[in-house]
């Protein structure tokens, strides 16, 4: 089992434990805000399962029907997670509205907050692991899962403050009002997850910082070429695709041009692990006198 798969399975286990703790906190207090927190954790479990399935599918090798691989499966998972986050936010808003219409006195709030705090600490540790490891292994599904959990941690802190405020002041409306704020925060989190995933599905280019490094490497390693132009890049989950035209002198042999391409490819793969490179070699009269200057 790959590292990403193990992390995906770990997310399901952590999500179930956190969900159990938050449901216990809600039962202990009757807090609408704590119920909203538990509802979000239900979504965490569902999306963790979806992420695990997507990671498994994305890891499958290229085949006749998918010659570029299955990497984008993780992006679909991240979009599903964004949708589920938004659904959770709408459910929480419903609970908050009902709580405002019929406020209730909280029971055993301190004990419930402590139980909820334990769940939040566990969530906080795991979200850091997911974001760190997701970026390391270039897994959009793990990063999206980690960012979702981070929004859950923020929500839990706000919920705890709301319950304490209601307890201290006797303002029964504060509890459902804070639940509504939690819902708004979750909505924003869901939108950000979806926006980032859509960028990947639409084949957005690499960042300007990475592109600058790619150009630098090509310029340094393609010694003997005339120029490189029409550079195009895209990322699909953990895979990165780079393609460009390399103009060489007319007297250069096929073997020499091939060795040059091998040298450039090796340098680019050292820069970006696992990248897929396509180089179109052209004769000197195809030069556009633009693009990447070869040193």
Automatic annotation (TrEMBL):
GO CC annotation terms, alphabetical: plasma membrane
Matches recorded under PANTHER family: MITOCHONDRIAL METAL TRANSPORTER 1-RELATED
Bilayer topology annotation: Multi-pass membrane protein
Species name: Stagnihabitans tardus
Ranges where the Cation efflux protein transmembrane domain occurs: 11-202
Protein name: Cation diffusion facilitator family transporter
Cellular localisation: Membrane
Biological process (GO), any one: intracellular zinc ion homeostasis
Transmembrane feature ranges: 12-35, 41-58, 78-97, 109-129
């Amino acid at each position: 089992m790959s590292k990403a798969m193990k992390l995906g399975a770990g997310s399901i286990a952590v999500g179930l434990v956190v969900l159990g703790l938050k449901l216990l906190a809600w039962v202990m207090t009757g807090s609408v805000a704590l119920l909203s927190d538990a509802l979000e954790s239900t979504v965490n479990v569902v999306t963790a399962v979806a992420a695990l399935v997507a990671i498994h599918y994305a890891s499958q090798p290229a085949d006749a029907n998918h010659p570029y691989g299955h990497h984008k499966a993780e992006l679909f998972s991240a979009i599903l997670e964004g949708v589920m986050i938004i659904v959770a936010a709408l459910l929480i808003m419903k609970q908050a509205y009902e709580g405002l219409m019929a406020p209730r006195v909280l029971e055993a709030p301190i004990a419930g907050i402590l139980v909820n705090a334990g769940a939040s600490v566990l969530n906080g540790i795991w979200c850091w692991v997911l974001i760190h490891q997701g970026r390391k292994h270039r897994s959009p599904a793990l990063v999206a899962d980690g960012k979702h959990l981070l929004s859950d941690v923020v929500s839990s802190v706000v919920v705890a403050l709301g319950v304490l405020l209601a307890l201290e002041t006797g303002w029964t409306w504060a509890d459902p009002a804070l639940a509504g704020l939690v819902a708004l925060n979750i909505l924003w989190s869901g939108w950000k997850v979806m926006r980032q995933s859509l960028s990947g599905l639409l084949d957005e280019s690499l960042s300007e910082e990475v592109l600058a490094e790619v150009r630098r490497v090509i310029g340094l390693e393609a010694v003997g070429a005339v120029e490189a132009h029409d550079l195009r890049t895209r990322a699909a989950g953990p895979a990165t695709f780079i393609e460009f035209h390399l103009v060489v002198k007319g007297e250069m042999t096929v073997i020499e041009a091939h060795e040059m391409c091998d040298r450039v490819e090796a340098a680019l793969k050292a820069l970006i692990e696992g990248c897929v490179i396509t180089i179109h070699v052209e004769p000197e009269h195809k030069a556009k006198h633009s693009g990447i200057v070869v040193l």
